[in-house]
From TrEMBL, chains A, B:
Cited InterPro entries: D-isomer_DH_CS1, D-isomer_DH_NAD-bd, NAD(P)-bd_dom_sf
Keyword Cell membrane: no
Name the UniProt record assigns to this protein: D-isomer specific 2-hydroxyacid dehydrogenase NAD-binding domain-containing protein
GO MF, one example: NAD binding
Pfam families per the UniProt record, alphabetical: 2-Hacid_dh_C
Top-level taxon of origin: Eukaryota
Organism whose genome encodes this protein: Stachybotrys chlorohalonatus (strain IBT 40285)
Positions of the D-isomer specific 2-hydroxyacid dehydrogenase NAD-binding domain: 120-189, 224-315
Keyword Oxidoreductase: yes
Length: 349, 349
C-alpha cells in the first residue's frame, strides 16, 4: 500500500542520522515523519507513551524499542522494532493482531555483538583481567602460570544461526575455529541454509557455508556434546528456548569445559544451573551480556561466580546502530510503498 | 649437509610435545637430541648456559630463546630461534659468523599475538574495563555514555607485514576493517607481496592480497596520516625502526586519534612521546605488550598514562607455541638433512 496519509513515529535515544529525514521526505512526500529523541533511562530505554499527545496522535507506523501501550498503537499498521528480539511483544495486542506487520532489527547489531563475543572471550583466554590488576600494581612479571589456549583448531558452537550467529561464524573462521551451527528448524539443503534477513554487505555468512556441521530441533544435547570450546547463544527467547540450557546441558559441556557466551536473552539459560556450573568448574567461564533477571540485582550470586564477565545488556551498542537501523527502516518504507515483501518480517506464531 | 655427528640442544620452559623426540630419532638416527626444560624466570626466560656441562658439550645445533654465551656456541652451525625477533642477537659472535645459519620462529606466534591485538583493542572499544568495575560494584546500569565505535568500515594500518601482521590483516578483514600495509622494502608486484616465511595453514595472508594500499621505506609519515583507526606495530627492531614512532608521528595520528597496538618491540616507539600522546589525547589509547624499558619499572609514567593497557611481553604465550615451534624445527632439520633452503632463514646484514 503506497505511503499516503501515513504518520511515522521514530522514538530513539539518538538523533536521526544526518540527511535521513530529508531523504525520507523527498522520497515519500505523503508521509508525515516524526523522529523523537528521549534520553535512555538507567536500566532500559523509555517507552514512547511518555511523548506528548500531539506526537503520538494518529500514528500508523512506528519504530521503537520498548512496547508502547495498546492504546497508543491502535492505528498502527507497521512496526519496525529497534531490537533483534521480539520477546517483549509476545502478549501485546498489536503483535497478536495479524494485520499489523512487525519487522525486527536483525542484522543491525551483528557487527558489534560479534565483536563483544570475541572481545570478551579473548579477554578471558588471554587473562587480560589479571594483567590489568598487575598494571594497577605496576608489577611487570611474566606469567607462564596463566596458560593461553588460542583459538586455532578449536571449535565454536553457535546456537541460533541468524545475523549475529553468522557474523560470529565469519570471525570464528578467520581465527581458525571450526563452527558447528544449531538452528530451530532443520537446514538440510544449501537453499535452506541461506540467510533471508537484513545483512550488512561484507558481514556474516549469507549462504550458510561456514558451519562444518548443522544440528536442529531436538538435537540440542547432541550439539552440546560436540567438544565445543566456545558456545555462543544467539537464538531468540521463545517458549521452546526458555530454560534450554540447564543442569543437564552444563554436564554435557563439562567434558570440554566449554566457554559460554550469551548474547541472546537471559532466560534461555537456567541461572541457578549456570551459577553452579561456574562454581563447580563444569564450564571454564562465561560472558553474559544478558541475564535473568534484568536488571541483575545487587547480591545476586551470578555477580560473583568465578570466571564470569557480566555487562548490562549493552553489546548492541555502537555509534553505527542508528544509521544501520535508519537504513533498514528506509528500505522497509520503500518495500511498503511498492507493496514488496518486507525485510525481517516476523512470522508471528 | 646430512645430519650425522650432530648434537641438537633444545632449551625450553616447556616439555617436548608428545611423540616429537621419537619422531626425530626415527627420522634422523645419527642426530643426538637433548630437550632440556628449565622453568621460566620472573622477567625473562633463562639462558642455556645454566645447563650442566655434559648437556652443553659439543652442541652443533641449538634451539633457544635468550642468547647463550659465545663460548657455549663455538661448535654450533644452526640456530633455531624460539622468537620471531632476532634483536637480542645482533652483537653476538655466532650471529656475526656467516657460517652459522639462524632461523627465526616467525609464524609460530601469529595466531595468539593477533588474538592479543584484537582482544585488547575490542576490550578498549567495548569498555570492558568499565563494565568489570561495574560488576565488582554489582551495579547493573546501561551506559549509553560509553559510546562504542565498532570496526566495520574502519581502517587498520599494519606496520610490518610478516606472519603476525598478515594474521592481523586476516582478522581485520573478517571484522570489516580496511587494511593498509607498511613494509620495509617496496612491494610493487604481486610476487613481492607473497610471504616467504613459515605460515601455519589457514592463517595469515600468504599471497598479500588483503591490503588496499601498500607503503614502504621512507613513506612512514604518509602511511600514518591515512586516517588510521588502529595502528598495529609488528615490525622487527632494527637500527631503522628504533624510535620510528615519535612525537612527529603521534601528531600525524592525532587527526583520527589512532589506537596504537605494539606487539613488535618497545624501542620502536619513543616512550616519552607515547606518554605525552596518551596524556594529551593525540591518540585515543594504546595496547602495549612490549615496552621500553623491559621490565617496565614501578613508578614509570607509562603504567598510569590514560587509556593504556600494558602486559608483560606475554602475547606470544599459547599452549600451542611449543608444538608449533617443534614442527618448524622438524621441518628445518629435514631441510638441513636434504640440503634444502631453510624456513625463516635470517638474512644477516
Amino acid at each position: 500500500m503506497p505511503l499516503h496519509n501515513d504518520k511515522l513515529l521514530v522514538h530513539s535515544w539518538a538523533p536521526a542520522p544526518p540527511g535521513w529525514l530529508e531523504r525520507v521526505s523527498a522520497r515519500f512526500p505523503g508521509l508525515d515523519v516524526r523522529w523523537e529523541q528521549t534520553p535512555m533511562g538507567k536500566d532500559d530505554l523509555v517507552a514512547a507513551d511518555t511523548l506528548p499527545a500531539e506526537v503520538k496522535d494518529g500514528v500508523t507506523m512506528i519504530c521503537v524499542f520498548p512496547p508502547p501501550s495498546p492504546e497508543m498503537m491502535k492505528h498502527v499498521r507497521f512496526v519496525q522494532l529497534a531490537s533483534a528480539g521480539s520477546d517483549r511483544w509476545l502478549q501485546h495486542p498489536s503483535y497478536l493482531n495479524p494485520d499489523v506487520q512487525f519487522c525486527s532489527a536483525s542484522g543491525c547489531h551483528a557487527p558489534q555483538i560479534a565483536e563483544w563475543v570475541f572481545g570478551s572471550w579473548l579477554s578471558f583466554t588471554h587473562h587480560f583481567q589479571a594483567y590489568t590488576e598487575q598494571q594497577k600494581a605496576q608489577d611487570w612479571r611474566m606469567r607462564v602460570d596463566l596458560p593461553v589456549k588460542d583459538g586455532l583448531g578449536r571449535r565454536m558452537g553457535i546456537l541460533g544461526y541468524g545475523a549475529i550467529g553468522r557474523q560470529c561464524a565469519r570471525l570464528a573462521s578467520a581465527f581458525g575455529l571450526e563452527v558447528y551451527a544449531f538452528t530451530n528448524s532443520p537446514r538440510l539443503t544449501p537453499e535452506s541454509r541461506k540467510h533471508d534477513g537484513f545483512t550488512i554487505s561484507g558481514t556474516g555468512d549469507p549462504d550458510g557455508i561456514i558451519p562444518a556441521k548443522w544440528f536442529s530441533g531436538g538435537q540440542v544435547n547432541e550439539f552440546l556434546a560436540q567438544d565445543l570450546d566456545v558456545l555462543v547463544i544467539s537464538t531468540p527467547l521463545t517458549s521452546s528456548t526458555r530454560g534450554l540450557i540447564g543442569a543437564e546441558q552444563f554436564k554435557l559441556m563439562s567434558k570440554s569445559k566449554t566457554f559460554v557466551s550469551n548474547i541472546g536473552r537471559g532466560p534461555i539459560i537456567d541461572t541457578a544451573a549456570l551459577v553452579e556450573a561456574l562454581e563447580t568448574g563444569l564450564i571454564c567461564g562465561a560472558a553474559l551480556d544478558v541475564q535473568d533477571p534484568e536488571p541483575l540485582p545487587a547480591g545476586h550470586p551470578l555477580w560473583t561466580a568465578p570466571n564470569v564477565f557480566i555487562s548490562p545488556h549493552m553489546s548492541w551498542s555502537s555509534t553505527s546502530i542508528t544509521p544501520r537501523l535508519a537504513e533498514l527502516l528506509y528500505q522497509n518504507l520503500e518495500r511498503l510503498d511498492k507493496g514488496e515483501p518486507l525485510l525481517n518480517l516476523i512470522k508471528k506464531t
